[in-house]
Design a protein that fits this description.
The chain is mainly α. It is built from six helices and no strands. The radius of gyration is 16 Å and the shape is elongated. It starts with 6 loop residues before the first helix and ends with a helix.
Length: 163
């Protein structure tokens, strides 16, 4: 369980876990399929929780750039499409799988870097800790609910992407 309720720190913790999972998915010694399953669940739950609980609240702050928040949402869509492409590859570790994994890594790394520099730094500077903790609690609750629902299944991701 998280040691903090600060939504900024919780989101950063998820980003670091995603990076760890990328390393596992690249490693021939790791259980790449298990790492991909955990990644798919985490990415989808994380993004849906941000969009449901965090982004709408941050849009209400005049000092946080709404265009950046909306751009974050469109980057979630790009990440979801890249994740679906990887999940649809039949053979883990094949050349196609490695290629799709790198496309996913690129999409997610771009998004997390941008989100951390713009949205999260803005939230850290402009949003009071008590409010960030309230948002963190709501984020964790929504994320847990999504994780329980099996949100990272290929069928669910197809429905999100609109495939």
């Amino acid at each position: 369980m998280a040691t903090t309720q600060d939504v900024v720190e919780l989101i950063l913790e998820d980003h670091r876990r995603m990076e760890d999972l990328f390393r596992e998915m690249r490693s021939v010694e790791a259980d790449r399929s298990a790492a991909l399953k955990e990644f798919a669940d985490l990415l989808i739950a994380h993004a849906l929780a941000e969009e449901a609980e965090v982004y709408p609240a941050l849009k209400r702050y005049k000092d946080i750039d709404n265009e950046e928040v909306e751009h974050g949402e469109s980057e979630h869509e790009e990440g979801n499409k890249a994740l679906l492409a990887l999940l649809e590859v039949d053979e883990v570790g094949s050349e196609d799988w490695d290629e799709k994994l790198e496309e996913l890594v690129e999409a997610i790394a771009h998004h997390t870097d941008e989100e951390e520099r713009t949205i999260l730094n803005g939230a850290r500077e402009k949003v009071a800790m008590q409010r960030r903790e309230e948002l963190g609690a709501a984020f964790l609750e929504e994320r847990a609910r999504r994780l329980k629902s099996g949100c990272g299944s290929i069928e669910n991701i197809r429905s999100i992407v609109g495939d």
